[in-house]
Specification:
Ferritin
Length: 200
């Protein structure tokens, strides 16, 4: 005699307002979303769903901010000091990169403020906190080489920050990923310049 078919077990669902632990991503109901938004309103953009360690992320962003400002200063130094047969075309690269690094710094500073922190722009500590060094370069080729080295440092540091933050702070992750993509472009451009250098 065959056994009667067993009844399917009722499916467990998350309590209203609580995310599912199954990873299926049950969404919070509207009433709970509204109630949660009224709590800790002084936290601005940071809500209870923010999963990263805010203090650590702000520290990482401030170190990246210091790096960007050191790079801005180095690029401007190279822009003004560039001389020689190839100087005109390479000066344009230095100036463009200085402006792009400044744009990176602005993005980082704005995100630090959104997270409830303060951008650390103290000139006395910028070079100490920067991942990249401020290297003046002896001649035009040396300037390009030092800028390539600095971009390679930035690439590794941004990639490590992205991996550390992961999906716990997707907004910061996207900002860092956009900066990383441009730093890789910079490194590629300087690598091409060095490869084609006359009399290297």
């Amino acid at each position: 005699m065959s056994k009667p078919a067993s009844k399917p077990k009722p499916r467990k669902t998350a309590a209203p307002g609580k995310p599912s632990s199954s990873g299926s991503g049950v969404l919070t109901d509207t009433a709970t979303l509204r109630a949660n938004a009224r709590k800790n309103i002084g936290d601005g953009a940071i809500t209870r769903t923010y999963l990263a360690d805010k203090k650590v992320v702000i520290k990482l962003l401030n170190d990246a901010l210091a790096t960007e400002y050191v790079c801005v200063l180095r690029y401007y130094r190279h822009y003004f000091m560039a001389s020689g047969m190839l100087a005109d075309s390479i000066k344009a690269e230095f100036l463009e990169h200085a402006q792009q690094e400044q744009a990176h710094a602005n993005l980082l500073a704005e995100r630090i403020v959104q997270l409830g922190g303060e951008p650390d722009l103290n000139p006395d500590t910028l070079s100490k906190r920067s991942h990249a060094e401020y290297k003046e370069g002896q001649d035009l080729r040396d300037m390009v080489k030092e800028d390539l080295i600095a971009e390679r440092i930035a690439i590794d540091s941004y990639r490590e920050m992205i991996n550390y933050i992961g999906d716990r702070d997707t907004t910061t992750k996207r900002i860092l990923e956009s900066i990383l993509a441009q730093e890789e472009e910079h490194a590629d451009e300087f690598s091409d310049l060095l490869d084609g250098w006359i009399g290297k």
